[in-house]
Design brief:
241 residues, alpha+beta, 2 domains, 4-stranded antiparallel sheet, 4 helices, 27% helix, elongated
Length: 241
């Protein structure tokens, strides 16, 4: 190994084994480290040249005896290199998983600073108040409860044949309904927010101090919630910001 390669190996080892190691995020440098360490191992394990001893009469090999074939073996990777390769594979797998999860949760393109906190599946056992779906023909779907809130999706009020659905969000504990109508004792009853084209129905709610909705939750004052309908999975996604 040349002097330049020895210097390069020393630098790569510092990046791999020092407290500030960063080589796991640099696949090119990691491959180069493995290559150079393999060469060092090969040089260290190569047998030293043996001086030829004088041939004693009678010890000459038979003229037709074939020499033993040379043996070749691959250099064994250092234990530290194996650990680094495992760490690099873990980083790559983590990044791939993170990208998959990010693609999975980004239902709404406007998620700056928001965090997904729940995915609400359909709840066929919930009895939807008829006053919230009056005049609607078609399937009405209610979703699992979240912090006292319920969401339902239903066909568009304006165009029942449209594939875009509408969404209503409310807290059942604050709703009083009878045969002729309903009243709501809260600040955030969102009725029939409809999607359009590729854009899903979505609504945002702020839990302000003293609001009736806040009293039904375990969330801190000032929490902002966004409810977004994920049509592909038939779920309502909840974000917090």
């Amino acid at each position: 190994m040349s002097i330049d390669e020895e210097a390069e190996l020393a630098q790569l080892r510092r990046r791999a084994y020092s407290p500030a190691a960063d080589i796991a995020s640099d696949p090119h440098a990691l491959r180069r480290l493995v290559e150079l360490e393999a060469r060092v191992d090969a040089e260290e394990t190569s047998p030293a040249p043996v001086e030829h001893e004088p041939v004693v009469p009678g010890d000459e090999p038979a003229p037709d005896a074939a020499p033993d074939p040379p043996r070749f073996s691959l250099p064994r990777p250092r234990r530290s290199t194996v650990i680094l390769l495992g760490a690099a594979a873990l980083v790559i797998a983590t990044l791939a998983t993170a990208l998959t999860l990010v693609q999975r949760v980004q239902t709404d393109p406007l998620q700056t600073g928001a965090t997904q906190i729940a995915r609400l599946s359909p709840d066929p056992d919930f009895d939807v108040p008829s006053s919230l779906a009056r005049g609607v023909t078609g399937e009405v779907t209610a979703y699992a409860e979240f912090e006292g809130f319920r969401a339902l999706t239903l066909p568009s009020y304006r165009d029942s044949e449209s594939t875009a659905r509408c969404m209503t969000v409310w807290q059942p504990a604050l709703l009083e309904a009878d045969g002729s109508g309903f009243s709501y004792d809260g600040e955030n009853l969102v009725m029939g927010v409809c999607g359009a084209g590729v854009f899903p129905p979505a609504t945002a709610i702020l839990l302000s101090e003293g609001s009736p909705e806040l009293a039904q939750t375990s969330l801190p004052v000032g929490t902002a919630l966004q409810f977004v309908y994920d049509a592909a999975n038939d779920e309502v996604v909840v974000f917090s910001g």
